[in-house]
Amino acid sequence: MALSKKRIVVKVGTSTITNENGDINIRQLDHLCRALSAVENMGYDLVLVSSGAIAVGAGKMRLAQKPKDLGLKQAAAAVGQLELMHLYDKLFGEYGRLVGQILLSNEDVQNPERRENLTNTLNALLENHIIPIINENDSISHAEIESDKKLFSDNDMLSAVVAVFCEAAKLIILSDIDGLYDSNPKTNPDAKLISRVENIDEELRNRAGDSGSNRGTGGMITKMDAAELATSKGIDVLIINGQRPEQIYDILDKKIVGTLFVGKK
Ligand code: GLU
Fold first, then answer.
1. Does ligand 1 lie within 6 Å of residue 225's CB atom?
2. pTM of the model
3. Cys-Cys with 181: which of 91, 174, 191, 247 at CB 3.0–4.6 Å?
4. The CATH number of the domain where 155 resides is what?
């Protein structure tokens, strides 16, 4: 696969862009849109995979907690996706960037005809310097929010699938911690950040543990699954802290930040 050095997929999770009560963290979202717009202006073509629809919808509907019932989750996603895109459109617009929304389900990437349409749309958006913003189509599909047996069972895996589709050279996953640690930093104060991973093996998986917050779906394990898929296609995968999206500038300057999973050449 010939990867495009100019193409970068960035994945942001619910815990980075929402507050505890489900309201959008506008300061953080603005910070993210500003950094990504700056990277676009440097000549890169970005794709943003963004979660947050369910949490934002639940917050807007004033539900006491994140819904557990499937129908209610899908309703929350319908409400929240709109709000999310409204803000992305507005904030990216302030930095002079255009965005387009793509909502995907497993069938879209498994069916050859739909897959071709998806690839064509992604290419047309990127060639016109429009930032595609992608989420799972939660309101009518429930692979990600319910099941672990589908091609993408969470947005980490979705971001890896998208990176493969657009032949991106890099996938940058914004997390709520600084990267992959050798043990859980929330329970072990001596945990050390691993800056480079050449090979994802069982030992590494066991050490990674699960560090997900209760607002998102994925933890470190789903990020490692995503990294395994993307690196197998030659894509470099980075996990960095979503509170500091300007670290993407450092990545482009080839500085060491977060954890790099080296793409297999
Ligand atoms: N698609 C879900 C949402 O937008 C999130 C799934 C995930 O965090 O992996 O709320």
1. no
2. 0.92
3. 191
4. 3.40.1160.10
